[in-house]
Amino acid sequence: MAYDFTAIDFETANGFRGSACSVGLTRVRGGRIVEEGYWLMRPPEGYDHFDPRNVQIHGITPEAVAGSPRFGEVFGELAGFIGTDTLVAHNAAFDLGVIRSALEVSELSGPAYDFACTVKLSRKSYSLPSYSLPFVAEAAGSPLENHHDAGADARACAAVMIDLGRRHGGGSVAAVAAGLGVALGHAPAYTPGDPLSKATADAQGWRSAGHQVPARQDWALWPQEGENPDPNPAADPAHPLFGELVVFTGNLAISRQDAKNRAAHAGARTASRVTRSTTVLVVGDGFAAADLRTGRLTSKAQRVLRMQEAGTPISILSEGEFLQMVGGSWPQGS
């Protein structure tokens, strides 16, 4: 079987997954990039406000997409580009969730997709302080210079998947994943009238309450750890947090308990302190992966770095990466 797939990356206007404002696609045939596509778009009507924090991340403004078609007008072309390919994305649950939620609020049908997540595959293949896309792309020999440009991110993700194929000798994405003990994901087809995803149901609740995005709660300045819930036994094994032991440090845009509940829903275990069993540390307070190189870290993160240097495989996520994985929003006005 030929090493063929399409890499995909979305950027969104706000905390709702269906608020797609740009997408990049990279087609790979026989382990080589052969075609790329990039679209700016207006998010679906009613979900098209731009949160300042999202704009700060990707630089796309309402004015930049004012003359662009909406997601529903672009999706047919996107689907035609993808065809029957396996989709590959870095934190694929987010990008496939964008498709599903945007279809739901656009009242459009969409096909099923098999997909692979390069976050999960990279954890099995590289020893890195962070599995953020810039770190992984650099390890794959394709440094990423314009992170959060959807076209650049899709190209980098494709390069990572190509490198994984070279390293592990699989003749297909499915074979590489199977060789690493990672399950492919499957996003079912959608037809209007099917049950809505949680992301869309939540967004409809925000709108009915008169909010654009969830308002930030007034929790304590020093976050309360709360309870560590049991992992969801019905969680998708393809989710990048499934089976991980997650610890949180610093303030997130959601409460510590809410963060733990969302991680557990994705199949992760959670804990209140870093130990040798920890596999993922989520860092709040505006942390970005680049801070690993500057030293702007909490005490928990500094401990994790020391443990990494001693050979303990723990990865560090920013709050933005975590919220993409589990569904969530930046606080209003930030």
TrEMBL record:
One of its GO terms (cellular component) is cytosol. Residues 4-170 form the Exonuclease domain. The keyword Transmembrane does not apply. One of its GO terms (molecular function) is nucleic acid binding. It comes from the Bacteria. The keyword Nuclease applies. SUPFAM superfamilies: BRCT domain, Ribonuclease H-like. InterPro entries: BRCT_dom_sf, Ribonucl_H, RNaseH-like_sf, RNaseH_sf. Keywords: Exonuclease, Hydrolase, Nuclease. Pfam families: RNase_T. This is DNA polymerase III subunit epsilon.
